[in-house]
Amino acid sequence: MGKELIKISFIIPTFRSTLNGLINYIEKILIKTKLDAEIIIINDLHTRVLCIHDFPDKFEFLNINIINNLENKGPGYSRNIGISSAKNSYLCFLDDDDDLSIEGLEKLKLLCNDADLICLKFFDSKGTFSNHSIVKSFPNGASYTGDFYVKTINKLGFLASHCQPYLFQKKFLNNNNLKYPNTYIVEDISFVTACLIQCKKISVYNFDFYIYASRSGTLKEDANFLRLIDIFFAQNWLQSYFSKNFEAEKKELLKKTITLLNLLFICRVIYNETNSFQRNNASYFDETSDKILHSILNSEEINQYLEKIHSNNYSKSISNQSAQTITNELGYYFSHIRNKIKEKIISKTNPLEITLLYCYGPISIGYFLMFKKINPMSKIFFIDDNINSQQKKNISYGEYTMRVEEFISNNNLNLKKCDLKIIICHLHFHVIKKIHAKSIRDFKKFSNANFSLTINDLYTVFD
Asked: pLDDT digit string (tens) for 246-300?
C-alpha cells in the first residue's frame, strides 16, 4: 500500500441521554473543518432509538451512520461494531464527551500515510496525563518500526493506555483479527496493547489532537462486581498473546499491561472493603449476574487466575456450585487480599500521623475504608487539586475531600513540624512522578520525606 491521503472513520459509542458531545464532534469534523470523513455513532442506550432526525437539520445529508444496539453492550462491543461498519482506511475511536483540536483536524486533511498506527498528541482536561513525552521523542511525521516505538514507551515508563491518541489502519486490524474485548472497562488499554505488539510500522505527529475530559462518575469508577469479571476477561484475552513469538520489548509491554490489570483487580477488591460479599450477596447480584457467574466461575480459569495473582498457599477450588456459594468463595479470596494489604502496606503507617490520600477515586476510598477500620480515630484526608465543587457534591466522603492549598490553610499546619505522610493513589508511574514533583514545587512545605507509600507498593503484596 503506497502513501496516500488518509480517510478516517470516527467511531463514537454513546450511552448518554444528551447529544451535546456528538453534535460538537459533527460540527468540528464535518462542518468547520470539512474533513472528508465518516462519523459512526453506536447508540448503546437501548431504551431509545437514535436517528438523524434527532440532530439539527443541517446534519441530515452529512456522512453520518447511526447504529442502535438492541441492548446495552458496553464500549468494547460497540467499538467492534464500528470497526465492522467503517468504510474508510483509518479508524479513530472517540468518547462521546471529549473534544478535538480544530487545528489538529485541519492537519489531518493533508496527512499522507500507510502506517499500521498513527500517534497524535493527547492530553486530559486536568493536565495530569498526556502523551507529550512520547511524541516529543520522535521527529514530527517520522515513521518507525513498532519494536522501536514500544521500546521508547517502555523506557519512558508509559503503558499502552488510551486508544484515543491513535489512528488505526483498518486493513491492519482486519489482517491481524484485532478487536476490543467485549468489556465495559479496560477494553482500551487491552486493545491498544494488542495493536502495539502486532504493529510493524507507526508514524508519530507532534500536533494537538485529542482532549480527554477527566471526570468522576465514569464506568471506571463503577464498583459493580461484574467490572471485576471484565478485568478477568481482558487479562485472560491478553494472556493468549504470550504464546506468540514477539520481541522482548513487546513482551515486556504485554507483561506490564497484564500486571496493571492484576493491580486493578486488587484495587477493586479494596474498594469493596465492606465485606458485603459475605454479608449480603443479594445486593450485588441479580438473576443475570448469577447466570454470568455460573458460566465464568464454574471453569478452572477464574480459579487459576485468582490463585496466580493472590497467593500460592491460599487455594480454594471453585467447582459446580450455586452462584451464592461461588460468591462466598470469592469473598474468602477478597478477605485474604485485604489481609495481605493490611499486613504489607497499612501496617507500615503510623496511626498518629496525618495521612493524605492524593487522587480521589476507588483506590483512595479503599485505603480510607481500611485505615478507618483499623483505627477509627486516624486522621485521614483526601486531597485532589483537580476536584471541583460540582464533583464534591457527588462524593460520598465529601467532607474529607479538598485541594492541597485548602487543606493546608484549613488545618493551619506547619508541615515541617508535624508527622504527615502522602500516599499517591494512582496506578501510572509517570503520573505518580508528575504529582510528586508538582506538589513539592508548588507547596514548598512538602518534602520528599512526606511522600510515603504509593500504589506501586501493591506490587509487593503477593511477593
From this structure: 899 999 999 888 877 877 776 666 555 444 433 344 444 344 444 444 444 455 5
pLDDT, tens digit, for every residue of 361-370?
666 776 777 6
> Average pLDDT of the chain?
76
Q: Do residues 126 and 98 share a domain? A: yes
Give the CATH number for residue 79: 3.90.550.10
Number of domains the chain is built from: 3
Per the structure, the complete domain to which residue 293 belongs is given by 276-344
* Residue 261: Cβ-neighbour burial (10 angstroms; 0-12, 13-18, 19+): buried
Are 288 and 411 within one domain? no
Q: Are residues 308 and 293 in the same domain?
A: yes
DSSP element (H, E) containing 208: strand 201-212
- In the DSSP assignment, the letter for residue 449 is G
DSSP notation for 381-420? EEE-TT--HHHHHT-TTGGGEE-HHHHHHHHT--TTTS-E
